[in-house]
Amino acid sequence: MEKIGFIGIGVMGKPMATNLVRKGFQLSIVSRHPEKEASLIEMGASVAASPQGLAGTSDVIILMLPDTKTVEQVLFGDDGVAFGVGTGSIVIDMSTISPEETIEFAERLATAGCAMLDAPVSGGERGAEQGTLGIMVGGPQDVFDRCRPIFEAMGKTITYTGLSGCGQKTKLVNQLVGATNLLGAVEGLRLARAAGLDAQTTLQAVSSGAASSWMLTNLGPKILQGDFAPGFSIRLQHKDMTLLKEWLAGMEGDFPAAGLVYALFHKAMAAGLSNQGNQGLINLWESRERSE
Amino acid sequence: MEKIGFIGIGVMGKPMATNLVRKGFQLSIVSRHPEKEASLIEMGASVAASPQGLAGTSDVIILMLPDTKTVEQVLFGDDGVAFGVGTGSIVIDMSTISPEETIEFAERLATAGCAMLDAPVSGGERGAEQGTLGIMVGGPQDVFDRCRPIFEAMGKTITYTGLSGCGQKTKLVNQLVGATNLLGAVEGLRLARAAGLDAQTTLQAVSSGAASSWMLTNLGPKILQGDFAPGFSIRLQHKDMTLLKEWLAGMEGDFPAAGLVYALFHKAMAAGLSNQGNQGLINLWESRERSE
User: Fold this and answer.
1) Percentage of chain B surpassing pLDDT 90?
2) Is residue B132 within 8 Å of B123, Cβ to Cβ?
């Protein structure tokens, strides 16, 4: 069984790493926040001094980090992973970052004989805890095949999407579709309220047919209860819409839904909603409408 | 059991009327297209000479007509329903028309002692055939209660939404949410293709999580197969988006998704796509992108 090094013991990374230990993988981590890592160490995870040190003693190095810059720093900065890997090592980057830079990182790691998979996830904190994440994987197919048991320890729907970068690209398609559905749910509920309809009744009627979506079914009730706690925060949704926007800038064609949802999440950040769940998008309008 | 008069034996109306006869309701129709009506007459439906005549011999008059103008004509034009109804008669308008004019029609019918329900449907031709329509009903609650067995003969999810016009308003909320989800599905698949991803794989990955929707699951595969036959046509979707736009014009607040989907379906009409299914929205871009 592969020895796994895990970097990024955060809201998502910690339950993912915990599931790996539970499934019997030998895990090491880089300690940054001892209080967050205590339970993993109690379960048997060892601690390395640096990403470089971790890479030297691991077959597979998993990253679950907040953004492109942090991934680059951890891979190629001082004491970075790239200086510890050997021939046959594998880096799996499960962060959601730029597809173009992913391809570049994979090329740089290849010069050290190290293969890389991009494997961003969907399903949020709950999916991470329950081991039911969706995982969209790009990179060499034989490396994917070898890593499948690792993915199966953390996720349910595991999709091989193609060469390096394709996992990130698929994730951004997913985020575009999800954000557009979220806008539909939010605008539908706003319209129901503005029209004096009973919003709960409208939600039930609309959820039962061709207008149904995960966003409407799962976030609609939270909106009606005034529950804006994050499953997935506006800050992270905005981060993904920014990655999408940057990626689209280099592409042919007109993507009006992407433009609209980017602009709205940008506004939501400026309105101070960053720490609300993405259903808090409705508060871009609601507070004003209610005070009118 | 109520004697029912049914006006509008079209793509939707015919299977709806057929289900009423099957459930034992005594049905009469106004003959306009004898070849379309033959099977109903064989099953025992009788034929009235005019909407007025039909109204005179029916307890409940159901309308399933293409637009607001046609409903007004059938109700209040020469030989219209309004001249045949008596005290205690009920008109059920199952067409999708203007909410404001619905309220006005109900008031005009009330002066003749006739109650009116607005009861637009979702679920398309297939839902009409299988008797599984979603039905959103507005009007007096006691009239709704009395008509429930009629709705149950044609639909599955039957929702009482409030006073006169609320059924139409709920339907337009439904159409806004559905059209926005459709745009998300279309733009996601366009992006997958533009990025060189395998569209089928992307569809599967995106359909499994928080970005899932009825539109993606049901129309995504049709798009990938190049099947643009209508379940629900672009012409009808555009008609509903126009009703939505006209309704929103009188309302406070900014509804950006509604504005965008209206503009796109307007473009799709101008591009000659009116008879395609609404998944043909993608052809606004695809033909150009593919020839580039």
Assistant:
1) 91
2) yes
Q: Tell me how close the Cα of A255 comes to any Cα of chain B, in angstroms.
A: 7
Mutate to test the interface with A, among B144, B161, B169, B213 (most CBs of A within 10 A): B213
Residues 6+ away with beta carbon under 8 Å from B113: B85, B86, B87, B88, B89
- Residues in chain B closer than 8 A to A159 (CB atoms): 201, 204-205
Residue B136's contacts (CB-CB under 8 Å, 6 or more residues apart) are A205, B119, B120, B121, B122, B159, B161, B166, B167, B168, B170, B171, B174
The mean pLDDT of chain A is 95
Domains of chain A, with CATH numbers? 3-162 (3.40.50.720), 169-291 (1.10.1040.10)
Q: What is the pTM of this model?
A: 0.94
DSSP B10-68: STTHHHHHHHHHHTT-EEEEE-S-HHHHHHHHHTT-EEESSHHHHHHT-SEEEE--SSH
Q: How far apart are CA A99 and CA A165, in angstroms?
A: 5
Given a contact cutoff of 8 angstroms between Cβ atoms, the answer to whether A147 and A62 are in contact is no
B135 CA to chain A: closest CA distance, Å? 8
